[in-house]
Write a structure and sequence with these properties.
Elements (H helix, E strand, L loop, with lengths): L2 H14 L3 H7 L7 E7 L4 H16 L2 E7 L30 H10 L3 E4 L18 E3 L2 H9 L5 E3 L1
Parallel strand pairs: 1-2, 1-5, 2-3, 3-4
Helix pairs in contact: 1-3, 3-4
Length: 157
């Protein structure tokens, strides 16, 4: 499958709210899952958007994503947060615009493990109760173990 076709599938699925589980089932989905660690720190809308699109694609292709949101990207995990503006891809019309936090919610709904960095809350105005349902606070030890595990690729944005 080409990158363009995969990206189009992800944005279309995101635009209509199709769950990754439904897509996996439609492609014979009972494969054994692998894991990936995605570390997102950027406050750039396009970087956040692309990180979420790629992570969503990995999830739809059978990967169990673990997402670590640090610095400004931690805001995506705060209940009620709204990006300044939605983004669009060439395959989408202006009506079908998405936000990184909307795709993050789809990832969570379909089983992604999402955590904010251990130092995010103490250095922000937010408390743990402000986080989206299903979002935790990363513990440095287990996160370091995941980062050191050669079977888990680490992607940083």
């Amino acid at each position: 499958m080409t990158i363009k076709k995969t990206l189009t599938l992800a944005t279309a699925a995101a635009a209509i709210g199709l769950s990754g589980a439904a897509l996996a089932d439609s492609h014979g989905g009972d494969e054994s899952k692998d894991q990936a660690l995605v570390i997102l720190t950027s406050d750039s809308l396009q970087t956040q958007g692309m990180a979420m699109i790629l992570t969503r694609n990995m999830q739809m292709q059978g990967t169990d994503p673990n997402i670590l949101l640090c610095d400004q990207a931690g805001d995506l995990a705060v209940e009620g947060y709204a990006s300044d503006a939605p983004f669009k891809t060439p395959e989408m019309s202006e009506v079908d615009q998405m936000t990184p936090e909307a795709i993050l919610k789809m990832l969570i709904k379909d089983g992604a493990q999402v955590d904010v960095c251990a130092i995010y809350l103490p250095n922000s105005e937010h408390q743990e109760g402000d986080l989206l349902e299903g979002v935790g606070v990363a513990a440095p030890g287990p996160m370091a173990e995941m980062m050191r595990d050669p079977s888990i690729p680490v992607y940083s944005f």
